């Protein structure tokens, strides 16, 4: 009998022993002796063909496996349909030869290539995900996640086929080979179909078939990308990637051999089997890593592909650990274990080299050079110095790092200068190196000062200023390199954001069929549509920047496109997250959820990169805007030349109605942008003016596109030329540089000229001329109402009335037709307005007849004038709506204008038909019904700009109010129903409501804790991101406290976050199961911090401080999301050493960001911080005075030389005067700015220090023979110091508070004590001074006056100010005598 080891799926939990002579299975005999070689994997000795495997151990499919089978089957159908659609490429409409047509071709090709590339990225990432997810025991496989990967592959392949057909058509149009592209796409679809077949849960083929099929998908993906020229990864990088993966496989093969040696020498069969199973798993995971590398190598630039390869690497690391542990449990042979350990180390080293290779590409793909590394470190460290204000030790530590970094940069620049052949360039490099060296020397000196005086804010400020100077020198020396790297980072971030958005759109479209909530799906589709319109601009920005790396215009276009992409992208993320719970298919829901998270992360990167790039590129917005407008003017001229030659063709998708709408919308955008430009230019802020100029240029670009489209879709040559002429006139008028002093004076006239040119451009739109003609018709006809009298026509009243009724009905009908035509074509609007003008003329003629016949002629004429006015408003509203047909507000205005026409007609008819009771009511009702017929026939037409959910909220709010009112009435009636003693029922009801609320809160908390305990951190990440986004929202409630209140709370919360983070690091090593609860705690703490930050920013002294606080809190939030994600990953895989290291690194980043938040809070309250520092300094002075009193009491406080007290009296008095002035500034500083409060606090410390010193010298001059007087004098100044310390503390507490706050009363009392103690000091000086001096008399008079003022019962702050001023005046008089 022989023993066979077979993988089982039946959860027995042990290796199965059985006979090889099983029925219906034939196995070949032994193949002779086997040989093993280092560096190679042993080949499989058994091949199993589907259908022939013994299925006795295969259990029936589970529900999850059945669901996956259904997903795979439907996905295969979608793949086959996509494959069938690739037989022919799209048919392009005829295109022109002008600049716009050529740009459309180029942009469409770029956009198609981007979309195809991002979709191929998703296909390869999904394929690698399937390989990783199906690696273990089928009973432990997450089939929902596998289904998500399958739907990702099929949905992206479906969308990719559409882009391939368009790109193939464009390639054929330009003489390329589109058929080859179609063939490559078909090959990819075929490879995907084959792989999906092997991935069926019921499939019994060996796993190697799945790995081979996945590798074929990767190969086909690379071939497709090469056909479209999108192989953006270096072939050498890909070759090295494969070599490193094979190196891991070779190292793993060596480990397997060493493990085999252990198994052969192990007598315990159970341990032997365990070693064999572990070695087998190690070999399988390594084979899987190589397969994943083959799959994702062509698309390794994609972060999701990098993540999958890293995940495969983690599985290898886990299997290596298992192999080592199994070997250690099987033998005690030190030699064998050492061999296993060395082999395992070899696998780990090879794996680390592979992961580092991946991370190198993820960080930018290319080394940044010796300049770049030092420059980045300088910029990062200076930022840390700025954030560490208040912590001298940390600032000095960072300064040491900064000095080393600048030294490295100086040496690098010198080396470049020595190797430079151009003497001028060499001189510039050496000059830059010298500037850097000088700035470094200044910074080092400032650091020494800060180290020697850690409590000196002045020294810290000097160090900050020196660091700023060094940063400026670095920017000047490496400006181009810095800008290039930042722009490169922005390019990568924009590419990833566009790719993530493309994936999210594909996921949203795929989820539509399983979405139970169509309203939510519609909102998602709308947000996707807006983003889809922005993606081309982002892609064009990236391509333009890459093709023109030295063009400021291209860089600014990329920055602008990136910033414009952020808001619609964030809205799509929100809509996607809101839609996920309504999707019934779990795989589709997971796909959309993952795509939304990836997009949110990509948007965060894009936001940061665009901000940094904008700072680096400088104020070039105005020049770039001018250049853009000049190019637009040139394009308009080019289009006009093509039109004259008959070659101007509309671009695909352009129609007359669409282009007219775009033109009308863009005219409003241009007008709004110009108004903003005028405002910013007047204020003189170059940065904001540049941004406004950029907005004007973008709006003009849309205007030029719309004008060209209208001209291309218009058959009338005259109208076509007029449109292009007017558009060119707009561009010509718009070219005026706001920053120029001369043009600044005529900027308003230029804006007016642009506005007039815009009006002429709009008037060229089809239908506008007809509306203008109708308006003129109404105006001309209405002139007849200006006559003094209206003679009778000679007809009877009944005839005139009948005619008036008839034409009134016609005019009312025409008004309704105008409203209806607003929803149709421009031709419909032209016909309806022309008819309205004619009907109005007929109506007015009949109305004038009625005025001549009626007895109340004045009233009739008045009503006719009202009808004329409302008719003009109707036509103006129709004209406005024709330029922006999608605006609900304009539609409302048009409908209201039509109702006004109806109402004014009703008033006239009512007055003329008063003799027939009931007739006027019937006629009015009929006309009212006619006016609303249009709304009833279009029930889905938007009547406001509120969204569906806003309307639902409004209805629900009203329903809620109604329900609560009815409930309250019910209970009130019940109480009043004959039981006057039932008042306690209301208390019982309130108690029940409170208990219900607490139960709901407890349930929510329990669910959150359960989710966190299971490692589900998605909700926490969403909560943190929501908290970050809500910081930018306007608070619904006014702040209840001051900045100090919110600062105190934020400091406590930030420190609590730091404690939680440290505890997470501890638990990661001791008890990873607790990480979920700690992550939930961290999420709640950050939510509280973000909420407080919102109010702290509002109550901060200025917007800059508030923005800085929110920025630091936002960065802390992004770090927290990373830590929470790592905590969830580690909780799911507690023994994963890589994840544990990543968690510790994430925790370090969070702790660093916490320190930045604390530093920003200190910087935001400089005055309060200065008060704290000042109070500490005063405490030191008091301690020093106590020491001096001890010396005086002991009789050891001796005079120096032969000095007398008179030598110090004048200095004491001058310093006391200065202290009084400081006291006054302190008291007033409580209500002033933080800057003034800080100055007052610092000045008071300086003065009290000097006063204490001179009083000590004066006391010493009295001699040690009079210790009692010395002690009295020093105690007097000590009391002044104590009072000052108390005054500083109360000033800090009262800062920013209203006048009626209790802290202001304490401030008044402290000021009173301060004045009293200064008075006591002066009395003491008087007591030890010669009685005959004039100074004594002046002092005595001053003291007496202060004493009288202090006896006043109503002591107010104004009296205090009076006392201070009076005291100062007396001291000045004393100095004169």
UniProtKB/TrEMBL annotation:
The keyword ATP-binding does not apply. One of its GO terms (biological process) is actin cytoskeleton organization. Residues 64-225 form the Talin central domain. Residues 489-613 form the Talin R4 domain. Keywords: Coiled coil, Cytoplasm. It comes from the Eukaryota. The keyword Cytoplasm applies. One of its GO terms (molecular function) is structural constituent of cytoskeleton. InterPro entries: Alpha-catenin/vinculin-like_sf (IPR036723), I/LWEQ_dom_sf (IPR035964), Talin1/2_VBS2 (IPR057346), Talin_cent (IPR015224), Talin_cent_sf (IPR036476), Talin_IBS2B (IPR054082), Talin_R4 (IPR049108), TLN1-like_RS (IPR054060). Pfam families: Talin_IBS2B (PF21896), Talin_middle (PF09141), Talin_R4 (PF21692), Talin_VBS2 (PF25177), TLN1-like_RS (PF21865), VBS (PF08913). It is found in: Cytoplasm. GO terms for cellular component: cytoplasm; focal adhesion; plasma membrane; ruffle. Residues 771-913, 943-1015, 1168-1332 form the Talin 1-like rod-segment domain. Residues 367-482 form the Talin-1/2 VBS2 domain. Residues 596-649 form a coiled coil. Residues 1042-1166 form the Vinculin-binding site-containing domain. Residues 268-358, 617-768 form the Talin IBS2B domain. This is Talin 1. It comes from Lates calcarifer (Barramundi). The gene is TLN1.
């Amino acid at each position: 009998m022989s023993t066979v080891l077979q993988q089982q799926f039946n959860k027995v939990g042990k290796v199965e022993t059985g006979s090889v002579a099983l029925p219906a299975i034939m196995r070949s005999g032994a193949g002779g002796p086997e040989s093993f070689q280092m560096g190679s994997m042993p080949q499989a000795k058994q091949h199993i063909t589907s259908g022939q495997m013994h299925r006795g151990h295969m259990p029936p499919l589970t529900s999850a496996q059945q669901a996956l089978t259904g997903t795979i089957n439907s996905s295969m159908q979608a793949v086959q349909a996509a494959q069938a659609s690739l037989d022919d490429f799209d048919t392009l409409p005829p295109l022109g030869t002008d600049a716009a047509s050529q740009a459309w071709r180029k942009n469409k090709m770029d956009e198609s290539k981007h979309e195809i590339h991002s979709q191929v990225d998703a296909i390869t990432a999904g394929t690698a995900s399937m390989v990783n997810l199906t690696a273990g025991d089928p009973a432990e496989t997450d089939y929902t996640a596998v289904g998500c990967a399958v739907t990702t592959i099929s949905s992206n392949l479906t969308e990719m086929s559409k882009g391939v057909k368009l790109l193939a058509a464009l390639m054929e149009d330009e003489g390329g080979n589109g058929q080859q592209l179609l063939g490559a796409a078909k090959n990819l679809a075929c490879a995907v179909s084959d792989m999906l077949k092997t991935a069926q849960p019921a499939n019994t083929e060996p796993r190697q078939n799945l790995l081979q099929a996945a590798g074929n998908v990767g190969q086909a993906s690379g071939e497709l990308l090469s056909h479209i020229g999108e192989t953006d990864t270096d072939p050498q990088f890909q070759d090295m990637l494969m070599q490193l993966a094979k190196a891991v496989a070779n190292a793993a093969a060596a480990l397997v051999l060493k493990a085999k040696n252990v198994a052969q020498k192990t007598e315990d069969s159970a341990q032997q089997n365990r070693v064999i199973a572990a070695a087998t798993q190690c070999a399988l995971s390594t084979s899987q890593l190589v397969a994943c590398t083959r799959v994702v190598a062509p698309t390794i630039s994609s972060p999701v592909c990098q993540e999958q390869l890293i995940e495969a690497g983690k599985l290898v690391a886990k299997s290596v650990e298992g192999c080592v542990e199994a070997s250690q449990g099987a033998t005690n042979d030190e030699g064998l274990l050492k061999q296993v350990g060395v082999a395992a180390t070899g696998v780990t080293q090879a794996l680390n080299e592979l992961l580092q290779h991946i991370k190198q590409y993820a960080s930018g793909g290319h080394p940044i050079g010796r300049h770049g590394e030092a420059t980045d470190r300088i910029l990062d460290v200076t930022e840390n110095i700025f954030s560490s204000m208040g912590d001298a030790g940390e600032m000095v530590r960072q300064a040491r790092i900064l000095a080393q970094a600048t030294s490295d940069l100086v040496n690098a620049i010198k080396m470049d200068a020595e190797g430079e052949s151009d003497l001028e360039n060499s001189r510039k490099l050496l000059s830059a190196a010298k500037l850097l060296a000088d700035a470094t020397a200044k910074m080092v000196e400032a650091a020494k000062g800060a180290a020697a005086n850690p409590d000196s804010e002045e020294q810290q400020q000097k160090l900050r200023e020196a660091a700023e100077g060094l940063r400026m020198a670095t920017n000047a020396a490496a400006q181009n390199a810095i800008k290039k790297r930042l722009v490169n980072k922005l390019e990568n971030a924009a590419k990833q954001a566009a790719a993530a958005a493309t994936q999210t759109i594909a996921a949203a479209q795929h989820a539509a069929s399983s979405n139970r909530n169509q309203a939510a799906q519609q909102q998602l589709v709308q947000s996707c549509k807006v983003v889809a319109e922005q993606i081309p601009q982002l892609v064009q920005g990236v391509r333009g920047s890459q093709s023109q790396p030295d063009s400021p215009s291209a860089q600014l276009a990329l920055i602008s496109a990136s910033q414009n992409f952020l808001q619609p992208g964030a809205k799509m993320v929100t809509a996607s997250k809101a839609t996920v719970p309504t999707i019934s298919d779990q795989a589709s829901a997971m796909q959309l959820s993952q795509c939304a998270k990836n997009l949110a992360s990509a948007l965060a990167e894009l936001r940061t990169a665009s901000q940094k790039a904008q700072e680096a590129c400088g104020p070039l917005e105005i020049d770039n805007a001018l250049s853009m407008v000049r190019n637009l003017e040139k394009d308009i001229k080019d289009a006009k030349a093509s039109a004259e030659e008959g070659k101007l063709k509309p671009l695909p998708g352009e129609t007359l109605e669409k282009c007219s709408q775009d033109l009308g919308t863009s005219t409003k955008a241009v007008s709004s942008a110009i108004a903003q430009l005028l405002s910013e230019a007047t204020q003189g802020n170059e940065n904001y003016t540049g941004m406004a100029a950029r907005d004007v240029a973008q709006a003009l670009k849309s205007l030029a596109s719309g004008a060209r489209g209208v001209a291309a879709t218009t058959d009338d040559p005259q109208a076509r030329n007029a449109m292009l002429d007017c558009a060119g006139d707009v561009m010509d008028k718009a070219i005026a540089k706001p920053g120029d002093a001369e043009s600044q004076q005529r900027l308003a006239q230029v804006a007016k000229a642009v506005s007039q040119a815009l009006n002429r451009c709009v008037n060229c739109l089809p239908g506008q001329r007809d509306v203008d003609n109708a308006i003129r018709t109404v105006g001309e006809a209405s002139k007849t109402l200006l006559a003094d009298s209206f003679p009778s026509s000679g007809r009877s009243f009944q005839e005139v009335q009948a005619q008036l009724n008839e034409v009134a009905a016609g005019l009312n009908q025409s008004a309704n037709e105008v409203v209806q035509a607003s929803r149709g074509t421009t031709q419909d609007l032209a016909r309806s307005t022309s008819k309205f003008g004619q009907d109005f003329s007929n109506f007015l003629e009949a109305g004038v007849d009625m005025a001549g016949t009626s007895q109340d002629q004045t009233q009739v004429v008045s009503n006719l004038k009202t009808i004329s006015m409302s008719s003009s408003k109707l036509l103006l509203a129709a004209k406005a709506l024709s330029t922006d047909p999608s605006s609900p507000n304009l539609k409302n205005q048009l409908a209201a204008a039509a109702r006004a026409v109806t109402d004014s007609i009703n008033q006239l008819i009512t007055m003329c038909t008063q003799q027939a009771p009931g007739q006027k009511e019937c006629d009015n009702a009929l006309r009212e019904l006619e006016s609303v017929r249009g709304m009833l026939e279009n029930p889905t037409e938007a009547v406001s700009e509120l969204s569906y959910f806003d309307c639902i909220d409004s209805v629900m709010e009203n329903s809620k109010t109604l329900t609560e009112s009815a409930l309250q009435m019910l209970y009130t009636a019940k109480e009043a129903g004959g039981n006057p003693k039932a008042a306690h029922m209301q208390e019982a009801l309130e108690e029940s409501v409170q208990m219900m609320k607490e139960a709901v809160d407890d349930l929510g908390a329990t669910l959150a804790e359960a989710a966190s305990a299971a490692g589900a951190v998605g909700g926490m990440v969403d909560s943190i991101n929501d908290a970050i986004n809500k910081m930018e929202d306007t608070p619904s409630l006014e702040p209840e406290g001051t900045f100090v209140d919110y600062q105190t709370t934020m400091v406590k919360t930030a420190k609590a976050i730091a404690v939680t983070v440290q505890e997470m690091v501890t638990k990661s090593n001791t008890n990873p199961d607790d990480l979920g609860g700690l992550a939930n705690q961290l999420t709640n703490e950050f939510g509280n911090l973000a909420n407080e930050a919102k109010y702290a920013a509002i109550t901060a002294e200025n917007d800059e401080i508030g923005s800085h606080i929110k920025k630091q809190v936002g960065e802390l939030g992004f770090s927290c999301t990373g830590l929470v994600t790592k905590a969830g990953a580690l909780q799911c895989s507690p023994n994963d050493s890589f994840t544990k290291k990543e968690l510790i690194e994430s925790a370090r980043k969070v702790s660093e960001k916490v320190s930045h938040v604390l530093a920003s809070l200190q910087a935001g309250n400089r005055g309060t911080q200065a008060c704290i520092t000042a109070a500490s300094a005063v405490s030191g002075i008091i301690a020093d005075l106590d020491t001096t009193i001890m010396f005086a009491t002991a009789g050891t406080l001796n005079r120096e030389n032969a000095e007398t007290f008179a030598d110090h009296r004048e200095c004491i008095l001058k310093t006391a005067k200065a202290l009084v002035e400081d006291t006054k500034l302190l008291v007033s500083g409580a209500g002033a700015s933080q800057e003034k409060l800080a100055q007052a606090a610092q000045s008071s410390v300086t003065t009290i220090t000097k006063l204490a010193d001179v009083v000590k010298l004066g006391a010493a001059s009295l001699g040690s023979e009079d210790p009692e007087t010395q002690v009295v004098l020093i105690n007097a100044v000590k009391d002044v110091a104590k009072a000052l310390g108390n005054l500083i503390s109360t000033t800090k507490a009262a800062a920013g508070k209203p006048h009626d706050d209790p802290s202001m009363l304490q401030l008044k009392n402290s000021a009173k004590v301060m004045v009293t103690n200064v008075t006591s000091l002066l009395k003491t000086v008087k007591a030890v001074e010669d009685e005959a001096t004039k100074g004594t008399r002046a002092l005595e008079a001053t003291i007496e006056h202060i004493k009288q003022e202090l006896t006043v019962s109503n002591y107010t702050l104004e009296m205090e100010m009076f006392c201070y001023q009076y005291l100062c005046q007396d001291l000045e008089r004393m100095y004169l005598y």
